[in-house]
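Kindly go through the following sequence and its backbone structure tokens. Advise at your convenience whether the structure tokens fit the sequence:

___
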Amino acid sequence: MGSWMRYGAVAAVAMACAMGSSASQAAEYQLWTWGANERGQLGNATNKKNGTPTLITDGVTAIAAGLQFTIVAKNNEIWACGDNLYRQLGYETPLESDYSTTLQKVPIQDTLIRSVAAGPKSSFAINNNGSWWAWGYNGDGLLGLGHTSTPVSSPEPHPFSGVKTIVGGINHCMALTDNGEVWSWGNRSDHGQLGREPSSITTPGQIELGTNVIAIAAGDHHGLALTNNNEVWSWGRNNLEQLGRDTGGSSDQTPTLVTGLIGTITAIAAVGNENLAVVDGYVWGWGENSQAPNELFDRNAFPELANIQDVAIGFRSDFDTNTFRLVNYYSYFALTDSGDLYAWGDNFHGQLGLGEIGTVGDSYSTPQFVGSHFMAISTNGSHVLALRNFSVPEPGSLGLLTLGLAYLLPRRRKH
């Protein structure tokens, strides 16, 4: 069995308003989880990995996956489970375990939660007016609170307001505001991942992009921004061309246009050294596994992978005893506008949701159907959170039979 050795990842912030619900009237959905579970991050009262999407609770409005923990908004409250070594759950757990296998309420006094977010070991909650709370690991000033005391054991309010989304890499974070600005904070000495010349690393500073930004994403040491005029900008580390351009491997602190993405761009995702974008409803990628931006699958061969609404990337590192180095493995997810979820890539922890637990090297090179009626997805590392429409009939009825059949129908085999 491979050992878990990943210490940082990007957080995908999944908001229930992704399908058109306003923040003030966020729809409620079911929370389903699957994949790695060594710290109880699936919330299913065990610490055993699970390759089958499993219903955990309903009434959920927003989700975020940390490295080995889960944050959800439910009934205008924040609930969390999984790893709590750095108090990323926002409450105390017994020292002998330092994790929780079930969702527990985070002690935060706010009844207007709009979304939640997570870095590898840090947590955030954003309310309807864009003010936010932060807790968990705070090395490099990752919580943006103006200090580096760590951990922050309980949610601490932040004076910065107007925030819509927060994303995080290994040692930097970024926030997207309601008026389309991007702000960053955290480590300034690595690879230019802040996208600016920082006057302070522990408080947010604005990245000058010169246009209205509608989405952001963060890899380990790089950042992406999608603008309202169908442009993707990148900055930070580029040793594996994760910026989408050839700089000879050198880092770039200045945001620069990613060329080659031609069309209407509606979503972006990043983790580790990999990136995805949705262009005209199709999935494009670049970075560690494909340096230049390109469409990942032939449209004629995979007609089901069209009309994509959102994408996400999971990540794990493992030690290769043959080469004596860490090897990166990625899992990819694409959600259509009709709610069909597809997955491909690494399946060692069952994170593709295909009803099976993988082995070392187990992966799928082509998209596999996971299920239908999904509304949002979040992954960070090798566990997956998804929101499903709970108006779908309960198990045993025709509605949920679609999800079960994903494990029985013939699939394109592993590469």
Notes: The chain has one helix and 28 strands. The helical segments are 398-405.
